[in-house]
Amino acid sequence: MKMKISVIIPVYNGEKYVAQCLENMICQTYKNLEIIVINDGSTDSSGKIAEKYAENFPMKIIHQENRGLPAARNAGINCVTGDYVHFMDVDDLINLEFYENMLETALDIGADMVCSGIVNEKSPKHSVRYDDRIVVSYVEDKFVLTKVRMHGSCCKYLFRTSFLKSNNLYFDEEFRIVEDWYYSFQAVYYANKVASVPQAVYYYKYRVNSQMTLKEKKFSRKRRFFKKKASQLCNEFAKQHGLTVVYPPQQRVEYKLFGIPVGKKITFCDGKERWYVFGIYVFQRRHKN
Asked: What is the mean pLDDT of the chain?
């Protein structure tokens, strides 16, 4: 029997993007998809657009009062019937072979979750691309491969449904921003294996008026608050489980003149570069892709 993938798509006032997102799903090369749209109390025509698509294509449309993205995703988890789950943001995109390639890798190696590349339109330095399929099961290697401590998006993963439910993995509904950081962190830890899928790419789009890009002070304060809280939860989880390596390793490059070391560059996981000359710190800058 062909495996079914449940795609959970929360929508709140996303009328500009709903049609494009659903077309992206319909045009996937893998067809056994359960598309679940959670209309999270939209006040625009998002729900109507989704209902229109449901007239011609099989999909579930769930309307609920506005409770936030974590609650919408949890509502989706509770009604999935697929063997695997993907969380899709309505304003983003994936390549058309995404589900075909992700599922093939998951089945080949029997992994609880597999990881695509991610292209960050706003901040290319936060993009992650994989050149090869890499399979890891050792805990610290899973954190390094996924870079989950720095790039916490749950949208770049395909999860085995039974894995999510057996580990009771639901989103913390108190969060309104970076709600998936702690979720992904726990999932990577608990997964039996994680594999990278070079042929699958998630495109994280930059939308000027999205909650993550609004410039008003109240949203900036909210982002800082929830990022700090998510970081604290990750740190506490790491401490409880004895994790010591949750960041990708630093990269060091030495420069020599006639065999004598004269300079050194250290690139950190957050993109910062620190330069030394004859062992003396000179300056620091952020790496640009």
From this structure: 88
Burial class (CB in 10 A: 0-12, 13-18, 19+), 51: middle
Per-residue pLDDT band for 287 (boundaries 50, 70, 90) equals low
Q: Is 17 helix (H, G, I), strand (E, B) or coil?
A: coil
Query: Is the pLDDT assigned to residue 289 strictly greater than 50?
Result: no
Q: Percent of the chain beyond pLDDT 70?
A: 89
Pick the CATH number of 5-240 from 3.30.750.80, 1.10.10.10, 3.40.50.720, 3.90.550.10: 3.90.550.10
Note whether 194 and 114 are within 8 A (CB).
yes
Query: Which one-letter amino acid corresponds to residue 113?
Result: M
Tell me how far apart the alpha carbons of residues 92 and 104 are, in angstroms, rounded to a whole number: 23
Within the chain, which residue ranges are assigned CATH 3.90.550.10? Answer: 5-240
3-state SS string for 22-81: HHHHHCCCCCCEEEEEEEECCCCCHHHHHHHHHCCCCEEEEEECCCCHHHHHHHHHHHCC
Q: What is the pLDDT of residues 77-132, one digit of tens each?
A: 999 999 999 999 999 999 999 999 999 999 999 999 999 999 988 878 778 889 99
Which helix (H) or strand (E) segment holds residue 98: the answer is helix 98-109
> Is this prediction's pTM over 0.85?
no
Tell me the C-alpha distance between 144 and 142, whole Å.
5
**Measured on CA atoms in the order 70, 73, 77, 83, is the torsion positive or negative?**
negative
Burial class (CB in 10 A: 0-12, 13-18, 19+), 78: exposed
Tokens found for residue 35: 């598309």
